[in-house]
Design goal:
Elements: H1 3-29, H2 32-44
Length: 46
């Protein structure tokens, strides 16, 4: 495998991992109970 091809595959894998992470965060924010918990934790900081 050439260096350019390896670099391209790693780049694609990185983008796929980032998209999966962002998708997971989006799914957590669609859960109302999760949102209430996050807001309560944020409010507890003040």
């Amino acid at each position: 495998m050439t260096s350019a091809r390896r670099h391209r595959l790693l780049q694609i894998a990185g983008f796929a991992a980032a998209a999966a992470a962002l998708g997971g965060v989006f799914l957590m924010y669609t859960q109302p109970a999760f949102m209430v918990t996050m807001i309560d934790q944020l409010w507890a900081c003040f």
